Description:
This protein is α/β, with parallel strands linked by helices.
Amino acid sequence: MATVLVVDDEPIVREVVVRYLEREGYATLEADDGDRARHLVEHEAPDLVVLDVMLPGTDGLELCRWIRSRSELPVIMLTARGEEADRIVGLELGADDYVTKPFSPRELAARVRTVLRRAVPRDEEHARIAFGDIELDSATREVRKGGVELRLTAKEFDLLWFLAGHPRRVFGRDQLMSRVWGYEAALDTGTVTVHVRRLREKIEDDPSQPVHLQTVWGVGYRLVP
């Protein structure tokens, strides 16, 4: 059962949306401001967020930006009719869809179903990743080099899978601590350095001259297929 977080400061809107979503078989979470929504995203791990642009505290656009900086969590924006600028900015920030107010709850439920359906095949498509002579399998959490299975810790696999899933994109240590370890504030970025060193020893032919797991000095790390 997918869980949908509904974020809107209008109680009647939340009530109607939640009722329709639960009727469609979804579990729901509710937040009336951006700060509460952020807490629920971090601690309850919803599968999709229905997000109003106009919120007290952290507004919807800022919250969308924060979500997209740390994950691919699907977001559907709710915008006031005629606020085209908000819709454009929301989509540029990475929102998956938008619905204008006033809206049909049935249409919103259909949009939720469509966005979630799109998100699932994307995960399945990337269930296996290969580069060079390295093969990763997310289902079995196995890594092979030249056909020989490597022994990786859980976090080593998570880090390698994350970087391999974003080829050539550079991530800072703080970003990796947040995206892989789930820490909001990275107080010990040496953890990332140690894991990168261990991964290089396992996947690189010459760890002192890494071909795949590269350092971008002053910025962070990237994986080059």
